[in-house]
Each structure stands twice: as structure tokens, then as C-alpha cells.
Sequence to fold (563 residues):
Amino acid sequence: MVLGRSAAGWAVPWDQHVSRQHAELVCQNDRLRVVLLGSASNPIFYRGQQTARFQLRPGEHFVIGQTTFTFSAGRMSLSLAGPEPSQQRSYSSRLLRQVRFRDPDHRIEVLSRLAEVLAGATSDQELCVRLVSMVLAGIPGADAAAVIAVGEDQGVQVLHWDQRLAVGHDFQPSQGLILEARGQRQSVLHVWRGLGPDAGPSLTAIDNVDWAFATPMLRPECAGWMLYVSGRFGTQAQSCSGPDDLREDVKFAELLAANLGSLRRMRLLERQHASLSQFLSPVVLQTIAGEDPDLVLAPREATVAVLFCDLRGFSRDSERHADNLMGLLERVSKALGLMTRNIRQRGGVVGDLHGDAAMGFWGWPVANADDALRACRAALDVSAEFKALARQADTPLAGFEAGIGIATGRAVAGKIGTAEQVKVSAFGPVVNLASRLEGLTKLFKARILLDQATATAARRQLPADVGRVRRLAVVRPYGIRSAVEVSELLPPAAEYPELSDEDLNRYETALDHFVAGRWPEAYALLHRISPADQAKDFLTVYIAQHDRTPPSGWEGVIAMGGK
Fold:
């Protein structure tokens, strides 16, 4: 581990002579190897000499600044059946608020560094290491300190403990004291041996321990945790003459416990925020920041624009790379990351990830007048990125394309699922329609397909230099009763000059002839459109397959035989 003032291993926040990253410690075979790091600004003294690399045996020590570090062979074990204390005192929060510190500057200095020291902890274990260091720094009379966890079954676990160099005995916290503090839900002090002529060793629960107190952490974020502190009367650091003088130390421990609860709450919120940020756009997160997430994220009906995006070429690649599935997974993950990033950047919610496909939606929890437009812009962004990267053979996304379907309508959106598992998503016919449109991109050989509601919004709101819309056909998708007018969303003419605006107008005129049953006219116009337009082939082939003659009872709707 690394030792330093704010090291992610063994924090020494009380000594300014200790650098942030000062020394590397390696314990092996009852030896401790110490190596001075290049970032250290002060030397290490071992056996009175400046030394940059050495080994310690148990009982030996080294010095940095004003702190002596002793390699201890001490052990920890719970004291299950120690003698009854000579005194027991309980401290309510109201009582401790009336206690004044005789040396407030030192206590406040330690507390002021608490947030900085604990914030750098990357795990609960490291958090406990740093917290115990803060306890020993703020309570000079304490010989040992620990963070204890008590389960619902009254099982006691010592998460981390430490003791001062002058203490040569094993650490044996009293389980009776721990359970008493848990039961009372307040700090409890046990005194086994006091000062004075009547004090004798017979009441001492553990050798060289006169007193100990346990302070439970009552915040839900630290449920079951407590601080345990023990020491002796009459030491050089402990100037108190009896239990009453320990009230300051108990108050300091309670302040640490309360601050730890707040810090863990902040870390929990940060993790929740990071988790939500994978699904919700920054705009949505800002909107719900000051409200109750359970209320804001509750399922409700809303008008949403739903986008389905699916990879093209994945099945082919999965067969080709069957012997390197992890590599294929990495490529697919990058592709899904491209999709979700563009959804979120356009203010959408990532509703689901399934295999090689992603679903996003707009209109919940915040509704905007341009939700359909945002979905279209996200689709154009995704399509443009895939198109550019697919041409670069040295990129993970080489060979991949994407098909996208967008539909707008009513749906239930929010936290949807079971009591055991939920996800933020949308549910309803419009979601199924968007999925069907995405599937139709394969038949129409189009990258982005829209339903009529989305196409109408895009025609009205989408600037010509951002994208273009054209009607492709009226179809009845598989599994859907109603006919749907399908439109294609295309890049602007400047980015896709192969298909001119004149070609688009010519296609829509041909479509009008097709719907009206004038198939020869439609067929002739379709052949005048640029050969680069693959989408026109769908109508051309359909007309040719029916000998350019509408079937009996023709209503202008093409029934799709499958997904």
C-alpha cells in the first residue's frame, strides 16, 4: 500500500510533513519493506539515519516529520466475556451538544480535513482505514480505535482497527459494550479501572485498557456501523482524571460519525447520479435534481418520440469471429456507446439495450415541443458517424452500419419492471411501431425510417441544411392492424448529392401514382430517379412482380408479410 497524507492506502492526515504520496509499504513474511517515493518532499528516518529503502521487523519503527510509525505484531480479537465495568455512562446527542472543547482548534482542524481525506477513498475498506486515522488524530488520549459493523443477527465484525505505537498489547474490543451501544442507539462509555487509591487491576477487562466507548452511526447510509475507541487514564496524551473528561472525546467521535454519514450519503448520490447519467441526458438530470426521483421517475402516460437503432453486419461478424467473442463484444460495445451517446446528447433517455440494438425516447420526464426533431437529429448523427467509421478499416466499427426507426405517439414511460428489477423505459404501441420501422429499413434499403407523425414534425421543424424527408410507401407492418405512411429521413443535399431534391420530388410523385393505382406512370417515373437511390427499388420490384397492375381491391396499402 501507499502511505501518505492523502494516500489511497494508508492516510496520515495529521502531519503536514508527510507528503500526499510518501512511501510504498509491502508486508511479506513478517517483514515490512519501506520504499521512499519520488513524490516525497521530506526524508524517512530509520535507526536515526535518512534511509530511502529498508526492512522492518515487528517492533521496529521509522519516522517521518513528527510521526513515528511502528511495525506492530499486535492481534485483534473480540472480548466476549470480560468483567463487568465499574462504571457505565450513556451520552445523548442533546447532552453532548452542551459539552465544550477545551482545545477546539485541534479538533476543528481534524474535522475540517475530514471531507478531503475521506473523499479520496475508493472503497469502504479504504474509507474505514482513513476514518480510524482521523479518530486517532482527533483523540490524542486514545490508544486504539476501530470501525465496527453489527449485523441484524447481533454478529460483530471489525472492519478496521489501529493502535498507537506505545501500545504493545493485542486489541480486544468488548462485544458487550458494542451491543449495548447498538441497543441504546447512542454513545456508551465503559470504565474498568479509574484513577485513585481504590482503583485496582481486578476490574480491568483487558490488560492496559482503562476505558472504551462505542458510538453508533445512526444515518441509514452507515446502518450497523459504529466507532470504537479505547485508552488509559494518566498517560502523557490523556490529561483527564476521570470519565467526565472523556465527554469531549465522545462528542468528537459523534461529530465524526455524523459527518461520515453525510459523506457516504453524498457518495451514494454521486453513484446514483452516475448510474442515472447512463440513461438520462444531462438536461433531464438537471430537471429532476431538486425533486424526489421516485415521484419524477414514476410511470405515467406521455407523448414520446421513440428511436430504435440496430446494427447491420453484426450477425455476419459474429459468425466470422466466433473464436474471438470478447473482441466482438468490445466492437459491439463501442457501437452501442456511439448510439447511446448521441441519444443523450440530443436530450433523450436511453430506454433499453438489447444485444446489438439500442432504444431511446424523448418526451419524458420532460416534454418539449421539438421532441420528434431531437430524435431525428440524433438519428442523423448516429447514421453519419457509422457511415464515416465504416469506411475506416482500422477502426473497431469498420463494416458496421445502423438501421433506425422513429415513431411518435402516446406511451407509458418511467421506471417499468417488477419488484425485483426495474429499468427506465417506455411501453406502448408506439414503441412496437418504432421497432417495426427499424426492421423495415432492411427491406427499403434505407438508413432511417419515420412514421407519419414524426415525418410531419420533421418537415415542419427540420432545416433543409440538416436533413430531408420523403414519403416511401403506405404499409401495414407485420403484427399491426393500421396502415402506416412510412417516410425516409435523409442527410441534406450537400452531404448526399447522389440523390437530389428533384429526385425526391420525382419519387413522391411516383408514389402518388402508385397509391392511386396508376402503376405504369409510377414505374416510368421511378426509372428516372438516380441509380444511387436504393429505396426506390422496393416499389419498382413490387410493381414488376404484379405485372404493373394493381391487385383487385387495391387501396394503396402494402401488407408486410414479416418483421
